[in-house]
Amino acid sequence: MAKDILGEAGLHFDELNKLRVLDPEVTQQTIELKEECKDFVDKIGQFQKIVGGLIELIDQLAKEAENEKMKVSG
User: Fold this and answer.
1) When comparing pLDDT for 23 and 35, which is higher?
2) Any transmembrane segments, and where (predicted)?
């Protein structure tokens, strides 16, 4: 009965019987979203490393091609 009244007021008890403002379902969704965001940030970091390596490789190849052009025209 008391939990129903508190629930209607937007207050909930967690598993440790602490009073919370957020609904337990919303809290769980927030935790899941936080984990998904962390995974996304990790994947973006990996992507940036891969792209950075690719850019370095392309720059190196461009310099080598430019050197060969200079040899041919010189």
Assistant:
1) 35
2) none
